[in-house]
Design goal:
Radius of gyration: 27 Å
Strand order of the largest sheet: 8-7-9-10-6-11-12-13-14
Helix content: 25-40%
CATH superfamily of the largest domain: P-loop containing nucleotide triphosphate hydrolases
CATH topology of the largest domain: Rossmann fold
Bound molecules: thymidine-5'-diphosphate, magnesium ion
Number of strands: 23
CATH architecture of the largest domain: 3-Layer(aba) Sandwich
Distance between the termini: 90 Å
Number of domains: 3
Number of helices: 12
Length: 461
């Protein structure tokens, strides 16, 4: 007897993807309020028991054989340069054929511009590309493109949001690269939910993923992020794609940082730095120099440190301001780094060096709009706070890095040599490093490397 087909719906949290049979006001998984939306479930194809399905297949002789790894033909990853060395590095050395890359970021940060520039560069070297926009009309895309320069004719533009149409165009045209701008505007008719909902995003991405793998097309998808900083329709999407890049920065400032947070074909935590001007994005090939530009001269509370962004050392300026509080309760604020770390380091200074910080306001800032949470910054944060407290500059050509423990000891960090070399390259003459790391460095002639055992020894001087 054929059962009467009933449309089945579930309530899906738009923030984390949690599914519930009933509506609830507060998502039990991510605790977001009022985030559950009713969505239609695609009819599931029911089979008999799994074992019955397997035995039926075996009878037909349809067996998949596991293979020894040595007999599998491994093609060398087929990488194509994007034409931007900053983007190539973040991708792990270029765009991998058949891979799927998600580019996330706040609205207005420059995702469409970045990918249009990528299309421009690929089209100039003759690659076939399809740019699908669900956000802008052809005219609007043309207006943006005319600011970016000449394009090759192998770039085709499509303004469409229906996934069936898009799949057909891709199948007919068979480009090497496809850009989808943005995944939140695309819809698949068979999914009974609004564009941008979790089910739509998941289904659309799944279809695109199949296209990428079957036809060997590299697909870039753009995703807007929510206020919490996750790509909307979120983790479900992140684990489906091969690479996740985030485009960060202050939309009002000129600088943008492209960061890789997941990469099946390269290392993560690599960053690429770009500058937005009236002709689109330009690469910043010397980011340390840009991070330190505009540094005040011989100011108290300003110390340069060196962090590692993926494989690359990056010099950054740490600023601290310690001042008398106007309230009964002192304010502590950190931007660009972890406030708990700042509180901990201030407690170390208070206890080990008798600095009376508990009644003072303290603000710590990493200049340049970058976020770093590396322990190697501890020594510079401590120095910056002490320098502001004593109102004594540490000197213009001084850099410091090392982890600070609770007894005030300075512990070694990784890649000492790269950090020292980067500081030396930019003209720093006196570098404080952990004492235990001294054996790893061969100081260049004109540079004084000082090994520090604990902060008391350094600040007592
Ligand atoms: P856009 O790429 O549209 O952002 P997203 O796709 O991430 O939403 O970038 C839009 C911003 O970039 C907009 O504020 C204008 C600015 N912009 C420039 O400053 N110069 C340029 O050449 C272009 C194309 C955009
Ligand atoms: Mg856009």
């Amino acid at each position: 007897m054929a059962a009467k087909q009933k449309k089945k719906t579930v309530f899906v949290c738009q923030s984390c993807g949690y599914e519930s049979a009933k509506w609830v006001g507060n998502c039990p998984s991510c605790h977001e309020w009022n985030s559950l939306v009713e969505e239609t479930v695609k009819a599931e194809i029911k089979t008999a028991s799994p074992s019955a399905a397997i035995s039926a297949r075996l009878k037909q002789g349809d067996r998949k054989k596991p293979l020894p790894i040595s007999s599998i033909e491994g093609s060398d990853e087929n990488r194509i340069s994007s034409g931007f060395s900053e983007l190539d590095r973040v991708l792990g050395g270029g765009v991998v054929k058949g891979s799927m890359v998600l580019v996330g970021g706040d609205p207005g940060i420059g995702k469409s511009t970045l990918l249009l520039q990528l299309c421009r560069s690929l089209s100039l070297s003759g690659h076939e590309i399809l740019y699908v926009s669900g956000e802008e009309s052809l005219k609007q895309i043309k207006m943006r493109a005319s600011r970016l320069g000449e394009f090759g004719d192998s770039l085709k533009i499509l303004s469409e949001t229906d996934l069936d149409e898009i799949s057909e165009v891709i199948d007919g045209y068979k480009p090497e690269f496809v850009v989808i701008d943005s995944i939140q505007t695309m819809f698949n008719e068979s999914v009974g939910a609004a564009p941008g909902s979790v089910s739509q995003i998941r289904e659309t991405t799944a279809v695109l993923l199949r296209i990428a793998k079957d036809l060997g097309i590299s697909i870039f998808i753009i995703g807007h992020v929510t206020k919490e900083g996750a790509v909307a329709g979120p983790r479900v999407l992140e684990h489906m794609v091969d690479t996740v890049l985030y485009f960060e920065g202050d939309t009002k400032g000129a600088y943008r940082i492209l960061r890789s947070v997941k990469n099946r074909f390269g290392s993560t935590d690599e960053i690429g730095v770009f500058e937005m001007d009236e002709e689109g994005l330009k690469e910043v090939l010397n980011p340390s120099e840009f991070m330190l530009s505009g540094r005040p001269e011989n100011a108290g509370g300003s110390v340069v440190s060196c962090c590692m962004e993926g494989t690359r050392p990056l010099l950054i300026e740490i600023q601290a301001l310690v001042c008398e509080t106007a309230f009964g309760f002192p304010r502590r604020q950190a931007s660009g780094t972890d406030i708990n770390k700042v509180n901990l380091l201030m407690a170390v200074l208070e206890k080990r060096l008798n600095m009376k910080l508990s009644s003072l306001d303290a603000y710590v800032n990493i200049a340049g709009g970058i976020r770093v949470n590396e322990p190697a910054l501890d020594l510079a944060i401590v120095l910056a706070i002490a320098s502001s407290y004593k109102n004594r500059p540490v000197g213009q050509n001084v850099a410091a890095f090392g982890e600070v423990g609770l007894s005030g000891e300075v512990r070694s960090v990784t890649q000492t040599l790269q950090r020292v070399n980067e500081a030396a390259r930019l003209g720093f003459e006196k570098i404080f490093i952990p004492y235990a790391s001294l054996k790893n460095v061969n100081a260049p002639d004109n540079i004084k490397i000082i090994g520090v055992k604990n902060v008391g020894e350094l600040l007592g001087q």
